[in-house]
Structure prediction request, 384 residues.
Amino acid sequence: MIRLNDITSQLLSYHPKVANVIYPGLKTHPQHELAARQQRGFGGMISFLVAGGRPAGRVVMNAVELCTLAVSLGDVDTLIEHPATMTHSTYSEDELAKVGIDPAMITEIRNYYERVIGVHIPSNMPFVGSGFNATSAGIHADGILKNEEIYNIFNTAKILNRPVSISVNDKSGLAGVAQWINSHFALTGKDRVEKTHPGVAKINKWVTKQYEEGRTTSLSDQEMEKITRKYLPEIFVSEFDMLKARAREMAYHIIERVIEEREMKSMNPQRMEPILQSLVDDFPYLQYVYVVNIHGIKITRTICQPVDQAKFANVGVGEEYADRPWFIEPLKDGKIHVTDLYSSKHTGALCITLSGPIRNEAGEIQGILGMDIRFEDLTKSEEE
Prediction:
């Protein structure tokens, strides 16, 4: 079990959605050396923090299949627990904030589900729906800014980073339109739209025209969404963007597993190449896989799909990739990186490249694994 925990902790530490792993078996743990001197193993308990706080923790709990959700059963089963909602569920909001749990993360998780995964969230769903904190008072936005407590039962901006939403009419103005957009689409931080944005001015002009032509009722959310999509298309995530995000996540799981193989850590081409060949055989969307050393020099032979052998005939051992972003970025921060879409100069296919650091047993980066992936084939594989 201890060996399994060593592997599990390493996989968790490389996962893009895990913020921190607390396990003395990891060399990054502040008391790793002490534990190594005192113990024959590093124990059977792992703690990890999921990016996104309490809501993200619940997502993990609901998705687990192989562990029992419990604090302790007094036996040898593998258990998993979420302290924030179990052992620490009696903590106040202030106490939870002191230990780093922020309810504003609910909005971030909501945005991830809607914009990345593509999950439709009903507008009236408490805390996360686009209209859960909307008022139909028909007031000017300045009224809300000055006396929000009159229109909103609690401070949604402070607690959830979601300002109160208003129904738009001819009295809303630029500030009202911008506030509706930011609240309805849960835009926070750098994603917020200012009232000075040219698109807001165009929307406000359209709104004014509706009332000049005789309208007397407030504009519906559906009408506002339609006109916002026309003048502010950048705040909407296309199906293509969501597909790209899912494709990248699929490929992540492959590379994070492979870079931990003992044969890969050896940096011996004869030991690594069978691993790379099995990847190409198992995953038809892998166009080309390779390993470069710390200097960016390719040390493995050309391993690609059989139909592409002729197209990669001139790419051999010794090819230099030291100036490529997929090589530089993992070397700089030690993380797995994914490139934007590009057209392969060898096959003409639309591709993304994943790259990750290969470390020795001391944790030092000694090479980079690269995978060129045919995007279309990857997305088809997901559909299947």
Q: What stands out?
A: The mean pLDDT is 80. The radius of gyration is 26 Å.
